[in-house]
Amino acid sequence: MLLLGNKVLVVIDVQTEVVEHGYKRDETIDNINRLIHCAREQQIPIIYIQHEEQEGPMIKGQPGWQFHARLEKPLHQEVTIHKTVPNSFTNTSLRQTLDKLDATHLYICGAQTEFCVDSTCRGAFDLGYNVTLITDAHTTNDADHLSASSIIEHVHGTLKYFWSPNGTITLKKSSDLDWMKNEVNLK
């Protein structure tokens, strides 16, 4: 059974191969788990996204493809959508699932910042959704030419300027989300 609501939490690719060596991995996954916990308490639907490839460690069913051991796993009523490209909307049922939920505002977290997180934020924006990228709940790895923290800073610096009459992308820490206020007070 899907919970209905305008807000939806989208958890992207928090899989072993993707995040095992991610920047601030444990802190990031702990923040994602708090988001999941609060979303469940407030009946905000959660959609998990899981990337798969034809070769290598991201083949469906392989250890690297599995959700990371630290991540709070989907409940039976929560949707997991499988994808093969960075944008979670491409060749998937994500948009149809969001339509069934009457979603208007997506809260996005996960990995990797400059690939699937960025692509999904842009895809959602292009489709007219309001997007909040949760700044302390996504991660990436160092690249040959740039540190993970620089990559994250660059993505934040780019996405914060996205705006149209049909949708926005905003950046917020998890503690600044209105539906996370009770969690902050519990600490």
Please report which band the strand proportion falls in: under 5%, 5-15%, 15-25%, 25-35%, 35-45% or over 45%. 15-25%
Characterize the main sheet: 7 strands, mixed
Order of helices and strands: EHHEEHEHEHEEH
Q: End-to-end distance, in Å?
A: 31 Å
Instruction: List low-pLDDT spans.
Output: none
Helix- and strand-based class? Answer: alpha/beta
Any idea what the CATH architecture is? 3-Layer(aba) Sandwich
Count of runs of 4 or more consecutive helical residues? 6
CATH class membership: Alpha Beta
Which range best describes the helical content: under 10%, 10-25%, 25-40%, 40-55%, 55-70% or over 70%?
Answer: 25-40%
Looking at the structure, the CATH topology is Rossmann fold
Count all strands and give the number: 7
The mean pLDDT is: 95
Global morphology: globular
Assigned CATH superfamily: Isochorismatase-like
**Physical arrangement of strands within the biggest beta sheet:** 3-2-1-4-5-7-6
Q: Write down the domain tally.
A: 1
Query: Roughly how many Å is the radius of gyration?
Result: 15 Å
Molecular structure report:
This protein is α/β, with parallel strands linked by helices. It has a single domain (7-186), classed as 3-Layer(aba) Sandwich (Rossmann fold), CATH 3.40.50.850. The chain is 32% helix and 22% strand. It is built from six helices and seven strands; from the N terminus they run E-H-H-E-E-H-E-H-E-H-E-E-H. Strands 3-2-1-4-5-7-6 form a seven-stranded mixed β-sheet. Helix 4 runs parallel beside helix 5 (148-159). It starts with 6 loop residues before the first strand and ends with a helix. 37% of the residues are buried. The model has no long low-confidence stretch (mean pLDDT 95). This is Isochorismatase-like domain-containing protein. Residues 8-145 form the Isochorismatase-like domain. One of its GO terms (molecular function) is hydrolase activity.
